[in-house]
Design a protein that fits this description.
12 helices; alpha/beta; Isopropylmalate Dehydrogenase
Amino acid sequence: MQKVRVGITIGDINGIGPEVIIKSVYPAEVLDFCTPVIYGSSKVVSYHKNIVQAEDFAYQSLQTAERPNPRKVNVINCWEESVNINLGRATEESGKYAYIALDRAVRDLKAGLIDVLVTGPANKHALQLANFPATGHTDYLEEQFSGKSLMVMVSDVMKIGLVTDHIPVSQIAQQVTRETLRKKLELFVRCLQVDFGHEKPTIAVLGLNPHASDQGTIGTEDEEIVRGVIVEQKKNGHIVMGPYSADGFFGSGMYRKFDGILAMYHDQGLIPFKTLSFGYGVNFTAGLSIVRTSPDHGTAYDLAGKNEADPSSMRHAIYAAIDTYKRRKEYLEAREKAIKKEPKPSEALEAIASPDTYREDTED
């Protein structure tokens, strides 16, 4: 079986992204099960290679991803000019090159030159300085692949999706509508089935308000919106429960009993997730036609250039992308086989009409 071609964007050149990428693909055993294709610049990689002190880290420098070497780490030169690296700072230049690398990787993903996308951490402020046309990676990928996505944080401890993600707190309640919640739940069910192999996933839904509104004492959204959608999903055959008060849900360890958890907003989901999984969690973009993951941390400017960054989350992001790609492929192949085995309408009618269909076998 052909190794999965993993496209990895360099992220912010002033942060820890290049460092954790190098540390993640440096071990030779990585090449046994994937072909890493780093989108950035060999000059930038060489600069950060010196920080990591990986003197024997070898890579192949390419202009295109058409023929990556399956036995080496490949670096696609998305720009040729020398750039100023200002470690630990969000600059227009760092945003610009993160954008260039992402755009190139997306184009190659569309063209089938890579199989999955792993994005290095980028700074949202730096991206905006460079006129990036979206709030972050996820919004950009939604636009590029014409779909609606669900941000899911994944670890061995839990899988937690977000109804709303990178929006101001003042806008959360107005965006938690029946329609939005319904669509996010449907995406989550599909994600858990196809991408993570849970045939009949169990999902817990957290309440919007403190104590899940305390039966309408603290707001009415949980009774009028959240509970109504949960009842609807149960009628559709899904195992969805809630709404749960977030503090008690995590404090009591109830999160261990579910395949997936749906949180209403960013910090409601990310705070418990990072408390329990930080360092090896993965940000997974569900709902799109492509597989995209990223580490669960940002640019960590305070660690840039110190060779102290932990690559575990980036490494897990690479593994998760590979595993998800294979599971999707297996799922679709199994579905295709099942469809082919189903009798055609005419064949089914012939079987029903055949005298042998109902003939009792009376032979000894």
